[in-house]
From TrEMBL:
This is Uncharacterized protein. Keywords: Cell membrane, Ion transport, Membrane, Sodium, Sodium transport, Transmembrane, Transmembrane helix, Transport. The chain crosses the membrane at residues 12-29, 95-117. It comes from Ladona fulva. PANTHER family: GH10366P, SODIUM-COUPLED MONOCARBOXYLATE TRANSPORTER.
Amino acid sequence: MFFPWSNSKGALIGGISSLIIMGCLVFGAQQAIASGNIQIAGKIMSTEGCLLASTLDSYLVENETFSVITPLPEENHSSTTQEDLFFMFKISYRYYTLIGFLITLFVGLAASFITGLSKSQDVDPILLTPPIRYLVFPSYKLSERQLERNSMKELNADDLLPLKADATV
């Protein structure tokens, strides 16, 4: 955990609100692409007119050196959109994870503040990330042996046995 004062209600509200908002964003953008409101230009798939390919061919055939290559004229490869399209639908899909994380974080923290913060002393320090753990609990030091004991608790054989026949339930 990064925030010891957040609570389960805030986490649930933040996660559900992020899921709903990101669902609207993703499906709205896909609908805009399917309806033709957003048109993504395709990539060039041929080498026709490429000066490098013709220079390379002449080098290999005639054993000449490479000449100075002039760049091809720039073409417009950007996406075209309508002006009245919602601006969030124009965002790249690569930002979806970041946007979803930020929505979850801020809505979850706000919901935690509204529903009542949990006390940082009530939180088990092992659940916090190490930098936050040492900020909230500066005197807390966790040794390697304590880590092993916390992660590998021994089970008693009696815990694994079924109930005895004479035991009353």
